[in-house]
Amino acid sequence: MVLQTLLPGRLAAQLVLLGGFGLLAGAVLPVAAQTPTNTLRSQQLPAVRVAGLRPTRFAVGSRQLVLDSVALNNYRSGTVADALGARTAIYLKNYGPGQLSSIALRGTSARHTAVLWNGFNINLPSLGEADFALLPVNGTTQVEVQPGPAGATYGNGAVGGTLRLSAAANSPADWGRGWHGTAQGDYGSFGLGAGLAKAGFSNEKVALRTSFNYRRADNDFPFYIGEGRSRVQQRQKNAAFRQASFTQDATLRLGQRGELSAAVWLTDAGRQIQPGIGTNNTNAQERDQSRRLMASYRRVSTRREWTVRTAWFEDVINYRDDLSGLSESTVRTSQAQAEHTWRLAPNASVRLGGEAQHFAAQVDGYGAAPRTENRYSGFLLLRYDPRPRLQLSLNLRQAVLPGQPPPLTPTAGAEWLALAAGRHALSLKGNASRSYRAPTLNERYWRPGGNPNLLPEESFGYEAGLAYTYKTTVLTLQNELTAYRQLVDNWVQWTPGDSYWSPRNLRQVRAQGLEASSTLGWQPGAYRLTARGSYAFTSTEKTQGAAADADPVGRQLPFVPRHTVALSTDHGWRGWQLGTTLTYTGYRYTDASATDFLPGYLLLNASVGRTLAVAPAWQLLVLAQGFNLTNNTYQNYQNRALPGRNASLSLRLLWR
Amino acid sequence: MKPFIAFTSLTGRLLLGSAAALTLLACDPDNDPNPGAAPVVTNSVFVINEGNFGRSNADISLFSKASNSVINRSLFASATNATLGDVAQSMAVRDSLGYIVVNNSNKLEVVSLAKFRSKATIKDLMLPRYFVAASSDKGYVTETVSYTAANGRVSVIDLKANRVVKTIEVGSQPERLAVVGSRLYVTNSGGNTVTVINTNTDVVEGTITVGDGPNSVVADRDGAVWVLSGGQVAYNPDFSIDYSRTTKGSLARIVPGQLMATTREVPSNLSAPGRLTINGSLDQLYYTYLGGVYTLGINEATLPTTPLIKRGSFYGLGVDPQDGTIYGGLASFTAADKVIRFRNTGAAIDSFTVLAGPNGFVFY
Predict the structure, then answer these.
(1) How far lies B335's CA from each of B17, B54, B73, B276, in Å?
(2) End of a domain among B129, B146, B169?
(3) For B230, which residue in chain A has the nearest alpha carbon?
(4) How far is A104 from chain B (nearest CA, A)?
(5) Is the pLDDT of residue A154 over 90?
(6) Within this chain, do residues B118 and B161 fall inside the same structural domain, yes or no?
(7) Fewer beta carbons within 10 angstroms: which end of chain B, N or C?
(8) Which chain B residues contact residue A369 at CB under 8 A?
(9) Which residues of A are less than 8 Å from B11 in CB distance?
(10) What's the complex ipTM?
């Protein structure tokens, strides 16, 4: 949430929702923007074509948070961290503006969220997690979050939840658009500058999209520290960053049944590593580069569907500081997936598939020799709707990892449309799942300390929820309430040994909580309002541990807030727009004994903008945004400074 | 003038070696030639909590011997309304002042012991480790300089002006140090030497070869200097420890005024001994080894083979100079960590909770 305060993504953020959808010349169906938590979205492809089955078809009974391309258009020069922070009550641990931003879904650690791009896991194989500040939104058409375990459906690491990014043309609106383009420039506090350019073309045969974005900031913001009875101002040092990304997507329809797609996603970020308050500035800097290529072929008929996908990733992390010198890390991942789906009947489908991954790591911390590792898994997914209002899914996955394999991981889910009367609809849903997480390359190979005998983490979790929708011609109200519980076993923790730290399977952790969300859309006339509120209660604690685990049981894990709230309003009237977001992040303990904590904080942001038609098919948006308007001094992570009140201005030009 | 002892102990994080340092100060050899005989009274125990690297959450906990309880878990923060800094490596006392070496903040924080108010901050050190005062006017700090530096250094501090007046290059990764008479002994843990510096001229007088990895140093009642070395760990290509090439730790005794030592090796190279500490009468040595605490008298002919305390691996070790009570700090770095107290017989007394990473104790 904090990160966004500097990000141009916010600029784009409220633009579209507020300003009106006409801005997005030729863009996606505007209605979709009103349904960010829509779980029952139906896809309507041209009648002659048969749609492929989306993975969520086999994820019955799970909560789904969807940020579709319309919603994401607001964050196009920002990062996934910005979008999630503004639209959800998900907690992201953040080390400073533009710095490491890691997710904690449902009380688990960042390694317990699987991040998939076009179906491939893009968590850094060395760390086993993704830095959400390094995932620009610009190249992505849709972000979907499925909280909760779903190892059978999504594979390794889908313990706390799964985040899916898709880039390829996957909605009917992506086809037949002709040419379109966008350009944007941002200017803001503390040396923030950003620009993006995006162009695309599609007819009914081919869809192409190219995008490029760049942003930078000096981040030399002032902050305050206590000293005696007074507050002393300091200026943040060594926190500048620059970040660029390029994406190219192409999808080609081969006849009525075949579809070939390919995607390239390049990201390159150079960051100074912001030192903690009171910590020696060693001029640390990090270069993060990821090169991701993928291609897939899908063939769909009325009764069968098969897909093959292959991908190659290269993830580079080069770190340097004055004290330790340079530490380099390059991991290349080659992988392939194949799956076959049988549509046994309109209400029953079966998908059988497998995946293979090969990791080749050249990491200074692992020694001079390259390390390689292979992982495999096979899965069987079933979907059956015994009655029109009742949906069931049952999934199984067995992974094969180096060392001891994880157990068979099944997932079962059910969803029942209990009430559908006029304007009211009420659904009940629930699911249960086993999941697993393979030890990361660092956990296995880091020298010293790497532990090749680590067992995979295992979890068992379940959830139940209800979703209520009320809809009239001018008003839509969606409410959702979910309760969950999960036990994670063999939880890995790095602990100090005689002479170095080492990861061990130390403990069992229980995470449980409640998630509530409400979205109101109201459009009585020219005025349009979208209001959202979401709240998450998260209780996560160690329940038992090995003898070597000194941490007490029954205490909230550090850096997981018990309470998070996100409220936002977006107002649009003719060419004007006004937006507000208010987030509350509750206290977070900083130690496993749950004694010291960082206080909770409120963050208020607001934006105002105007849309101008400058020529036929050309529109210009001018947007001013203010962040941390109450000028709070607060910390997200311990002793990492964050800026006070700040602002930005952006101009956006849209063509068609 | 009150003799005092500062016990601290080191971090294992950077494998720089470790041990307990005794700094014997305030014992002007001219008018107090036999400091070991002076009675020592201590009322308080300052526990140095190293904190988590990069999080600036180091602080000092104050334990009262009168009430057998922690009076203030975060003494510096509550007294000054500021954070102490990142990685409190050690603390030593001179007169009524405490000198806290804050490693990853590159500073030496000077506090009044009465109210723990900040009196001065000596900045721009380079990865400082340990401090010792030679007099009320002069102190010394060891500095790693950088993890890749061939040699570390010792900075000479003017304790009246609270500023660095000179730096002296010593060996690799200097750790604990001790002043005996007019000589400063500096353990160079990255090698196998002790640098001897004349405290009148601040010039290196010479180096003494000891066992691999000297990490801690104390002086006994006879003025002999004891240096504990951890040994040098050799690694296989897969980074497991190669015990066929790993050298054993050792205990060296340096005769005052001589630049040579007699060295005895510990029995096994499976563990690196560290945190050498001495009792109040300056005749009994203590150190951590093989997951326990070992002890021997200064006149014993052989090193002990059985531990006095067999209780996990202590990250910090201290011995109360008044009554010989042994303090062991357990460090998880995740939870609020514990200190266990033992009688000098090795029998456990009680435990109390401090902050993350208790690495040393100062008795005052």
Answers:
(1) 24, 16, 14, 26
(2) B169
(3) A499
(4) 18
(5) yes
(6) yes
(7) N
(8) 237
(9) none
(10) 0.82
